[in-house]
Amino acid sequence: MKWVVYGAGAIGAVLAARLSASGEDVTIIARGEHLAVIRRGGLLVRSEVFGEMICRAPATDDPSGVGPADVVVLATKAHGLTAIAPALAPLLGEDTIVLTLQNGIPWWYFHGVGGKWEGTQLESVDPGGLIAKHITVERVIGALAYCSSSLVKPGVVDHLEGIRFPLGELNGRRTSRIQGLAKALDAAGLKGSVRTDIRRDIWGKLMGNAPFNPISALSRATMDEMLRFPGTRRLIIAIMEEVQAVAAAVGSETGLTIEKRVAGAEQVGPHKTSMLQDLEAGRSPELEPIVGAVVEVADKASVPVPNLKMVYACAKLLFQHVGR
């Protein structure tokens, strides 16, 4: 298959390197110094799982010269989609799959759910419906990335652990196209499990991301440090309870107990969340899709989330100062 990995950062780089190594036709879309380094000597992924890999897939910043792909992997930050969505047209053939890997509540979440929530647009994720205008939901396969990696400098990504990429059709069906994607990921040494309820998986990941990411940015603490400190541990658990309540209000669930989610986080150890990494690197974080979107849904569903709102307000102010 012809793959286009749009955004070869922490997650996209691992995908591009493994898919390319397995013989897939991969093109990387990147920009700036990151692109320049990739073009000069390839994309270096230093993996604790696979060893050192140099991906020499072609790289460009111009989608118009690539042509239609079989699969377009959107591996950018969620807030970057509004900028790139209008540029995707040259990559989209009649049957092109768009694989979304963003954290938080995705722009397509309420498409196809039926009932009173059908078609609900979240301004925190897709302002004005711009993304939905340029990417038809029929193309979309939702995915999550359980992959601890970081972009340490242009052209270089460190991959510590995690190779799981759960996939799900928005209607939950096990179609031939999603099975083909799972097979390709498996052949690349990754775990592309097919899920029948990808929305539940999204809430399961959000139950951790919604508290851990902003609290880590505010405290500069790693996962294990946040859970060892009694005050932040209590706050994390309180926010997890709020996220569970919001999921239930829209007819879903997290699929995990709080005890199991906390235990899983404890096993990660001294890991910096993506939001803390963004803060330290001076990058814009995924605050809106991970936290703001949950707050927006909570307000629409009249679910009280006082702890999440408090942390959201503080984190939003923090990143406003950093962005000045």
Q: Would you kindly provide a written description of the structure presented here, covering whatever features stand out?
A:
With 324 residues, the chain is an alpha/beta fold. It has two domains: 195 residues, NAD(P)-binding Rossmann-like Domain (Rossmann fold, 3-Layer(aba) Sandwich), CATH 3.40.50; 124 residues, N-(1-d-carboxylethyl)-l-norvaline Dehydrogenase, domain 2 (Orthogonal Bundle), CATH 1.10.1040.10. Helices cover 44% and strands 19% of the residues. It has a seven-stranded mixed β-sheet. Helix 6 runs antiparallel to helix 8, helix 6 packs across helix 11 and helix 11 runs antiparallel to helix 12. The longest helix is centred in the middle third of the chain and has 22 residues. It starts with a strand and ends with a helix. The model has no long low-confidence stretch (mean pLDDT 96).
Binned strand content: 15-25%
The CATH class assignment of the largest domain is: Alpha Beta
Overall SS class: alpha/beta
Q: For the record, what is the CATH homologous superfamily label of the largest domain?
A: NAD(P)-binding Rossmann-like Domain
Mean pLDDT: 96
What's the order of the H and E elements? EHEHEEEEHEHEEEEHHHHHHHH
Global outline: globular
Main beta sheet: 7 strands, mixed
Could you say what the CATH architecture of the largest domain is?
3-Layer(aba) Sandwich
Helix content: 40-55%
Uncertain parts: none
- Domain count, please report it: 2
Per DSSP, the total helix count is 12
CATH topology of the largest domain: Rossmann fold
Give the radius of gyration: 19 Å
